UniProtKB/TrEMBL annotation:
InterPro entries noted in UniProt: Alkaline_phosphatase_core_sf, Sulfatase, Sulfatase_CS, Sulfatase_N
Alphabetical keyword list: Calcium, Hydrolase, Metal-binding, Signal
Organism, as annotated: Edaphobacter dinghuensis
One Pfam family this sequence matches: Sulfatase
Protein name per UniProt: Sulfatase N-terminal domain-containing protein
SUPFAM superfamilies: Alkaline phosphatase-like
Length: 624
């Protein structure tokens, strides 16, 4: 009986491992090379080669933060302490001319696929009220745009994702599925995090693999870090020779800004000088660090933002506390990333790991409105200023706590966090919306440790760079589906050549009306007003489709001097190029914030306007 039991276990194990091998093999079919005769004696067995990563292929970790401006983290000259990022950058490379799409879902879709967001149906969002029934806008990444996880898993990697996913259509995001657009349907072996754009950091809408699970009450950053470490350790125990890919995307520092007072209180009094002093100090630090040109000029404060010295004592007290909480939130996020990095070091894998860190998926957020937001979401933008400030002052002690369910800092701090650039998140026309810090850490491959790279780059470049550095070719097909061309440009050429000329020379940008086109240092851009977010007079101006601006970034790094009237031929050339890019990449039709807010796009016949949906969400949160 004992022998029979052992035999049964052995057979079960063999069946399991064989089926696992076949399931992996199914991703990259190999023609059968054996002989099938009438009898076993007349036949010749054959087994497909097991899937293996290229010899010496490193582990890969992508870290993507949320809503962090260029001038927030100490690593790029900011006043918020980020020792983990500092260490990785000092032992790796700082890419100072890296760009995102200006808002979260398009950036994530572009990052994961190596293709422009509208090319993969994510020009807007996967949310019902912010997507539309057009090829570039339906919020459904097609199977013809395989993700980095699908590519690496088919090449012998285990693949894990934790944190914010953000590109699953709303109607698919229940435990009933379908699951093909969940992370596990897009190449990830395991996922732990949330599917939407924003979640409460203490009561997250939490998912593990293909089901919602109950959070444990701790901060989400701690939970996703623990889970990432557990995934890595589980693999190391059974297949230490196999590399892994980890996509680590915390909800931080997106609203709600929530963090333990241990972290926020470290910044008490640190921002009492205000946002004007912050911008000036950070600007000088950035020059000394070499992350901006020595001849760069700091733009004037946005006219909608009051000078700090013109604020009342109550306003200063309130606004400074908002920034203390935000700073603590970012420093705490850096700490949790540090736990992950230290663990890789402890298990002797850090030197064998390629790490990309994008400090933000867009510029700093303007969604906190002019006065800051604690618990009433975007609807607070419609309230009179004095009423909004008085409300927030009464609840100043709640900022950063679990009670601050929509916590976000005022617009003045968003501009400060975006130093040295103008404007902020959602403004695809401006460097303040699209220009983010990038760190590349790769002990095996980087000789110029602590170096700075100024080559123009975009979020679509990270996937092809990763494939180049690990020795994997982008597939022509995934599971029998022909793949769209990768649109990014590998940055591998610049890793050990600081002076190499940029190879990514053309890039378009578009977010709900705001738009830009970059070519060889020149940039044409068209802003789009969004009074729902800022609630200010300037943003209520009518949209003028002819109000294009023109900048030469080679000479004017911070977009201060509009050359549209001086060089009309160059502007016309770039506008024509934008239309060409828009048509090529499925960006038509141009959908604007007004279309979204007024409910002119409909995923379903009973779709609400964005504004009505926000009201419903706010009412629901107030009743909880």
């Amino acid at each position: 009986m004992k022998e029979k039991s052992v035999l049964n276990k052995l057979i079960s194990t063999l069946i399991f491992t064989t089926s696992l091998s076949l399931s992996l093999h199914a991703q990259t079919p190999q023609p059968y090379q054996g002989v099938v005769g009438r009898t076993l004696a007349q036949s010749k067995e054959w087994w497909p080669e097991p899937v293996k990563a290229p010899a010496g292929a490193p582990n890969v970790v992508w870290i993507l933060l949320d809503d962090v401006g260029f001038g927030a983290a100490n690593t790029f000259g900011g006043l918020i302490q980020t020792p983990t990022f500092d260490s990785l950058a000092n032992n790796g490379l700082r890419y100072t001319n890296f760009h995102t799409t200006a808002i979260c879902a398009p950036t994530r879709a572009a990052l994961l696929t190596g293709r422009n967001s509208s090319s993969v149906h994510e020009a807007g969002f996967s949310h019902t009220v912010m997507s539309a029934g057009f090829p570039g806008w339906d919020g459904r990444i097609p199977s013809s745009a395989g993700t980095i996880a699908e590519i690496l898993r088919a090449n012998g990697y285990n693949t894990f994702a934790v944190g914010k996913y953000g590109v699953t259509p709303d109607e698919d995001a229940t435990d009933a599925g379908p699951f093909d657009r969940w992370p596990t349907g897009k190449g990830f072996d395991h996922f732990f995090g949330f599917l939407g754009s924003q979640t409460d950091q203490y009561k997250p809408d939490l998912v593990e693999d293909q089901a919602h699970v109950r959070p444990d009450g701790r901060h989400l950053n701690a939970q996703i870090t623990d889970k990432a470490i557990s995934y890595i350790d589980r693999q190391e125990r059974v297949a230490p020779e196999k590399p892994f890919f980890l996509y680590y995307a915390p909800g931080a520092t997106h609203a709600p800004h929530q963090v333990d007072r241990y972290w926020s209180d470290q910044y008490k009094g640190k921002f009492d000088k205000g946002w004007d002093a912050y911008r000036e100090e950070v600007f000088e630090r950035q020059k000394k660090l070499g992350v901006i040109p020595a001849d760069a000029k700091l733009p004037e404060r946005n006219p909608d933002i009051k000078a700090w010295d013109q604020l009342s004592p109550d306003e200063k007290k309130l606004y400074a506390r908002f920034m203390e909480v935000y700073a603590g939130y970012l420093t705490y996020t850096d700490y949790e990333v540090g736990r992950l990095i230290n663990h890789l070091k402890e298990i002797n894998q850090l030197d064998n790991t390629l790490i990309f860190i994008s400090i933000g998926d867009n510029g700093a957020s303007k969604e906190g409105t002019l006065n800051g937001d604690i618990d009433r979401s975007l609807v607070s933008a419609t309230l009179p200023e004095k009423e909004n400030i008085a409300y927030n002052l009464r609840k100043i002690g709640e900022i950063g706590t679990p009670a601050a369910v929509e916590g976000n800092y005022p617009l003045g701090w968003a501009q400060a966090a975006n130093t040295p650039f103008k404007y902020w998140k959602e403004d695809a026309n401006s460097e303040g919306g699209t220009h983010n810090p990038l760190i590349v850490f790769y002990p095996k491959g980087i000789k110029d440790k602590g170096g700075i790279r100024t080559q123009y780059s975009h979020v679509i470049d990270i996937l092809p760079t990763t494939l180049d550095l690990v020795g994997v070719k982008a597939p022509d097909e995934i599971r029998g589906i022909k793949q769209q061309p990768i649109e990014g440009t590998s940055l591998a050429y610049s890793i050990n050549d600081a002076k190499a000329p940029s190879r990514h020379t053309v890039q378009y940008y578009y977010i709900f009306g705001s738009r830009a086109i970059y070519k060889d240092g020149w940039k044409a851009e068209l802003p789009y007003p969004n009074s729902l977010i800022t609630g200010n007079a300037a943003s209520k101006q009518a949209f003028d489709e002819n109000a294009w601006e023109l900048y030469n970034l080679n000479d004017d790094y911070t977009e201060r001097i509009d050359l549209a009237k001086k060089y009309p031929e160059k502007l016309a050339e770039l506008k024509a190029l934008f239309e060409e890019q828009a048509k090529t990449h499925n960006l038509y039709p141009y959908i604007t914030w007004d279309d979204v807010i007024n409910g002119r796009i409909h995923r379903t016949k009973d779709s609400k306007s964005f504004f009505d949906a926000v009201k419903d969400i706010t009412k629901s949160s107030e009743n909880q």
